[in-house]
């Protein structure tokens, strides 16, 4: 058979001689046949097992006929919202509509609905009343049981109930989707498919069910945040395929949602087989007229080398989705993919990434996990590395060396991120040394997330002294390379546990660092993370202790502004935060101050005077006042140029540093009035 995209039309089916598809896959993403896209993997897996699969990408959810273009499938519909939860895809943390969808043609927003999985399933039900529907992907996986939904600010039922689907294939679906397909093909009614790992199904009774844990009912968790926290933590502890129990959640009388334990992790051979499937490694040609799919450009020349993560960050959904057991591909599989990359006409010699959720995890964290699973009540790296932790970068080092040596490869980057605390467990400098020499270009991006140990504890991240030790080690090793390369820290604002005191401490740390982060990640309460549970309940589900949580938009805005206190647009928020929290000592001209006492004439990055923000407060004063301000500005009582210029982030004050250090409050007021 000629290598080609899967059918997207009746004409494509006819070319293959098909009268009917076995499965029709409906995706919220555009059709990209690349192993970084979930729909590509699942459809190619089914194809490899002999099933006929067609794809309807981004159907018009306002028109039920849009899901009929391939006809009724013989065995069932497969539905997924896409590579992202549709609500995360659509909205910022401030619940404002995003302007671009990287998974749609030309980046155009609006090609999929909110809560896409539910909408698509309801659309199918309007036309095909009895055809089985199997839902999967990250949206369905993270919403498989009752869950807090940030966008509606309420607890929602399992997506299985609201969608009307028959089964959820959650997590990594390669095993479960084939077993579901085989069961349907064998004539088993979809309502009787209750025995497959990695699935969730509906049940009218619990008769015959053994060795299960009954969670608090949907009504209970709606009425009690304590019950919600306990329920979620039970789910969190039951995400391992070897130790997890069957979980049961009562929705209403004679209606239960039943979650089977997760699927077993893929073996190395199975991982290799998945990535060796005949992907076209490109978007469908029908999108050429729109300029293609932006998301592909980000990953086209990147290689997935592993899945899973034992890092255990509280704000990450990976534990719930991929699990903590690391699954890896062989060197040969990865090298073969890289060689194919070098043959692409637009390959410029740069492999953009070799990694997964965490790039430097190339094996399980300890030997027992592949037979007995991960520890239910212990983390591998937090709060301290486990004594049984295997620390070895040698396999990853060897893999990177092999990739660097390939003809046509100029440089191999690592963009997926490394765990610096895992690096610090390794006494051998080889990995960090080669990282500095070959795999970064000027900047190493790492994610300390915060500097307050109180916040880091709730994040599941190592204490700040571990990060500081890593920086010292990195700088020492990097110096030996003769390169001037820096560390760029990723920071997060407003995470549960972060008080205004913690946010101010982070701002002071940034001040002393002499660095203003260009990008700040606001904590985003996505479904099914420990942090989201803390955000909603105000409780740490592991201990049931109360957790301070920034909830109001204004407080979150202040915490974010403090991280970027040098941005003139953040002045008022920073000032308010400092005054409200008794830190007016940080308002002034001294070397430890964050902002000056009054808003001053500020300058943009080109050195030109900013006018928009300053004039906004005077919009009702008229032109005369603007002229007066302009006149005052032009006759600034300038201080002699012989005095050093203090380049403050908010404005430029021509005073010597020595003078600044010793001026008292009254002098500050006087000078401010003169300069303004």
What does this structure look like?
This protein is of the alpha/beta class and 676 residues long. Among the domains are: 190 residues, Rossmann fold (3-Layer(aba) Sandwich), CATH 3.40.50.280; 140 residues, Transcription Regulator spoIIAA (2-Layer Sandwich), CATH 3.30.750; 64 residues, no CATH class. 35% of the residues lie in helices and 13% in strands. The chain has 27 helices and 24 strands. A nine-stranded mixed beta sheet has the order 3-1-4-5-8-9-12-11-10, sandwiched between helices. Helix 2 packs across helix 7, helix 9 runs antiparallel to helix 21 and helix 17 packs across helix 19. The longest helix has 18 residues. The protein is globular, with a radius of gyration of 28 Å.
